[in-house]
Structures are given as structure tokens and as C-alpha cells.
Amino acid sequence: MTPLPTGRLFGTDAGVDLVLTRTFRAPAEDVWASLTESERTARWFGPWTGESGPGRTIKVQMVFEEGQGWMDIRIDDCVPPRLLKLSTVDEVGVWLLTVEVSEVDGVSELKLVHHRESREGAGDIGPGWEYYLDMLVASREGQALPSFDDYYPAQKEYYETLTVSE
């Protein structure tokens, strides 16, 4: 499998937004459930525990990462089934993420935005998001999960040379 990178960079007042999208033939509520229900996130990202809600922090197990460690994710905003804003804090720093789900005629689009201060690290981060979003697609469609080896380092150059769009 040779997945094609899809991410784009947009300039912001605070830096850049790395934006990736995926489309699903499903209502927004069903896509939302894949993002927010622990038994469903376990299929493509990892299960989570804790009490969810805006201002609360949950623990997510990264079952597809080496060591399968747990990480804290703060829910900054949650407007089902359309908007989820998250903050993660770990050894690599603070990551601010926004997930938007929109639907037209039973087709939903998921837009993942990783808000960053700069382009630095995009070559390592972009392939990871491609991998996880394709994991989401595969898990929803009952397909075999992709291998991270198909994304990294193959997509590293694409993300390192990605320019900021207007």
C-alpha cells in the first residue's frame, strides 16, 4: 500500500494549521461516535477512560504506539456532533487539535486541524495523522488496518516541503 499524503498548511495569526480531511458515507452522528465512544476509538486510536466533557481531562491509551502508553487529553470544547477541541500534553509538548464534522446528504466530512506555532516537525507529524485517519477509515469500513511503515518515512518529504496555503 502506498497512501498519498493529503495534508495542507494554512497560515494563522499564531502560526500554522496542519489540516487533513476524510469523507465518509455516513451521518455526522455516526462519525462523531467513532471519535468519542471509547469502544469505537479503541479500534483506530485507542480506548479512553475518565469522565468526558468540556474542561475535563480523559486518559487515552495509545494502543498502536510502541509501549502502548497512556496520555492525558483535555477536552477544551465539545459540540456534538460537529466540533471537538482538544489539548494534549506529553513529552513532545502541548498539541492543540480541532476536529470538525460536517454533513451534506448523508456524506460527512471530518476535518482535523493541528494548530502549530510553526512548520517545524511537520515531516514527522503529518504522516502520523495520515496513518491515524486512515486507521479510522479502515476501522469504520471493516478493512484491515494500515501499517505505519507505509506512511513513515515515505510521506516525510511531502510534509517537510509543504508550503503554506492562503
TrEMBL record:
Give the domain of life: Bacteria
| SUPFAM superfamilies named among the record's database cross-references | Bet v1-like (SSF55961)
- Record Pfam families: AHSA1
User: Where in this chain does the record put each Activator of Hsp90 ATPase homologue 1/2-like C-terminal domain?
Assistant: 25-138
InterPro entries hit by this protein? ASHA1/2-like_C, START-like_dom_sf
UniProt record similarity statement: Belongs to the AHA1 family.
Spell out the protein name for this chain: Uncharacterized protein YndB with AHSA1/START domain
What is the native source organism of this protein?
Answer: Crossiella cryophila
**In the record, what lineage is assigned to the organism producing the protein?**
Bacteria, Bacillati, Actinomycetota, Actinomycetes, Pseudonocardiales
